[in-house]
Design brief:
335 residues; alpha+beta; two-stranded antiparallel sheet; 15 helices
């Protein structure tokens, strides 16, 4: 039971009961609270926009991993109601629009996907070869980086835009899965501007020309498709029957493989294959052993395989002295 206590009136009017005062105060508090909550739902803050204006904008545009309103390029007209009249942040925790990217909306390319050319996995503008004219507004007057986190244009590749091949697909010849310029056999005339004066690599990340294959351009076969004869599904040079005269430049002096990955000629077939092929075929039987047809002139015809002194070749070709000595010097040789 509520004990109603009446106070003495000050002006002859009866005082209100205490419960009535409590109800009145509570009602005022409730009204204040609901107005404050209603303001939280209202995207337009007091003094920051027109309450009768458009509804709260949807932030459905991702820029740099952050959601923005679709018309973010006109922030004064569309964002100040929440983010503040100067866009430095709202009164309810809305972030400053300049904290991450400065006033990027004032740039002419705002809202455009201007970096549409992929180079080495990085997007560039189509006119990246003229960066002083087209990129300084964002990347800085020296292209060393902008004030809002835009990267330096020289960090990855130096001033590659100054090279004559900028923007041109000059590496159009595929060699072993790597693209080369058409003039790759004369690199000192065609490649040093990018790959360095000694072709050991350029200042902007251009690789060394010798890293993969050495000075291959010095070989007489550079740029020539010399392996045109298919044997056992493998391409050989036409003069494969004379490998010591024709193949040692690439495949090594002993034909065991070259310094740049050229395979050993003995990996698949041993030396007997070329000992018995073409004009070097050993089809003359003499004392139970097969010889080449011109065996009486071995210093002219046999030293390529059997060694310069005919004592045996580098791949176990037998010595011509092993069975018979210098029979080729005898007057009846071949008879």
């Amino acid at each position: 039971m509520i004990d109603i206590v009446k106070t003495k009136p000050r002006s002859g009017r009866p005082a209100l009961p205490r419960p009535t005062i409590l109800v009145f105060v509570s009602t005022l508090a409730w009204l204040f609270w609901t107005m404050s909550c209603a303001d939280l739902e209202n995207p337009f803050r007091a003094g920051q926009g027109n309450p009768a204006g458009p509804p709260k904008l949807s932030h459905d545009q991702a820029m740099g991993g952050v959601k923005h309103a679709s018309n973010f390029c006109q922030p004064i007209e569309n964002c100040s109601a929440c983010h503040g009249a100067n866009l430095q942040g709202g009164t309810h925790g809305e972030p400053s629009c300049t904290k991450c990217h400065s006033d990027r909306w004032s740039r002419p390319d705002c809202g455009r996907t201007s970096h549409s050319v992929s180079l080495s996995g990085v997007n560039h503008r189509p006119n990246y070869c003229q960066p002083i004219d087209n990129c300084t507004a964002c990347h800085g007057p020296t292209l060393k980086g902008g004030t809002s986190g835009e990267p330096s244009c020289t960090k990855c590749h130096g001033e590659r835009w100054n090279l004559p091949g900028c923007g041109k697909n000059i590496h159009t010849v595929s060699l072993k899965g790597v693209n080369h310029a058409p003039g790759y056999c004369t690199p000192l005339q065609n490649c040093i501007e990018c790959h360095g004066a000694n072709l050991q690599g350029g200042a902007f990340g251009a690789p060394s020309c010798a890293k993969c294959h050495g000075e291959w351009w010095k070989r007489s076969s550079c740029g020539k498709n010399i392996h045109t004869v298919s044997l056992g599904g493998v391409s050989h040079a036409p003069n494969y029957c004379l490998p010591y005269q024709s193949c040692v430049e690439c495949h090594g002096s002993d034909l065991h493989g070259g310094p740049y990955g050229e395979p050993s000629c003995l990996k698949c077939h041993t030396q007997k294959k070329w000992q018995n092929c073409g004009s070097t075929q050993h089809n003359q039987r003499k004392d139970g052993v097969y010889h080449a047809a011109n065996f009486c002139k071995p210093l002219d015809n046999c030293i390529q395989c059997h060694g310069s002194n005919l004592r045996g070749g580098p791949n176990n070709e037998p010595s011509c002295y092993r069975c018979h000595g210098e029979k080729w010097k005898e007057s009846d040789c071949g008879r």
